[in-house]
Amino acid sequence: MTINSSLTDLLTTRTSSRAFLELPVEEKILQEIFTLAQQSPSNCNVQPWQCYVVSGEAKGKLQNALIENVASGAKPEPDFEWGMNYQGVLRDRQHGAAHELYSAMEIERSDKPARQMAMLRNWSFFDAPHAVFFCMERSLSNTGSVDLGIYAQTLSLLMAERGIASCMQGALGMYPKAAREQLELPENLGILFGMSFGYADPKGKANQAKTVREELSNSVTFCS
Predict the structure, then answer these.
(1) Band of residue 56 on the pLDDT scale cut at 50, 70, 90
(2) Is 156 exposed, middle or buried (0-12, 13-18, 19+ CB in 10 A)?
């Protein structure tokens, strides 16, 4: 296996994949990646992440349950607060990302059915062979969320280093009931978000979407 050791290359080339090949990641590689991700930093070294990786039949069963739930019109019931009232420049960036994605998929803004079908693909894991649900104690709030974010970023970069694509998905925390039941989560654990992963389909239209990043001066202030 070829490993790209340049973090700079990984950060500048990694994108969120929304189209995957059926090829699963070898168990040995999964064990290696998740073992290394345990080195992620966390507040007071509490390491609050509890991860549930679904593949094969388990993934297919959960996928069907999630799509059925979402398609029924049920309202989201996340285990944690997910207020996303984007305004101003944040809303502009959100709309910009959506425009890039739907343009790459050749879906017009007026085509509501096609957009709905594209949205439903979140809960089919974009046909990825694997997905991971990031969970933590329900008693944790912002601090735990920060730790899980750091862990997930570490995981995605370790995957990218090995040619494995991924897509972070807040959507996988919106309808946790089916996942909680199938994964037999204890009551004290909640699902924060998830990530689909596998080998990217180079022909997938969604994978042609490219988002932009803000200039440094719009995000960082150096004080001295």
Answers:
(1) very high
(2) buried
Total H helices, total E strands in the chain? 7, 4
Phi, psi angle pair for 65, to nearest 5°: -65, -40
Report the alpha-carbon distance of residue 45 to residue 177 in Å, rounded: 29
Distance of CA 6 to the CA centre of its chain: 23
Write down the pTM of the prediction. Answer: 0.94
For position 4, what pLDDT does the model report? 57
Please tell me the distance from the alpha carbon of residue 212 to that of residue 218, in angstroms, as a whole number: 13
Task: List the 165-169 sheet strands across, edge first.
Answer: 50-55, 130-137, 189-198, 165-169
Domain segments of the chain as ranges = 7-209
CA dist 13 and 200 (Å) reads 13
DSSP secondary structure code for residue 135 in this structure: E
Residues in the chain: 224
Class of domain 7-209 (CATH, top level) = alpha beta
Candidates 187, 149, 156; CA nearest to 170 is 149
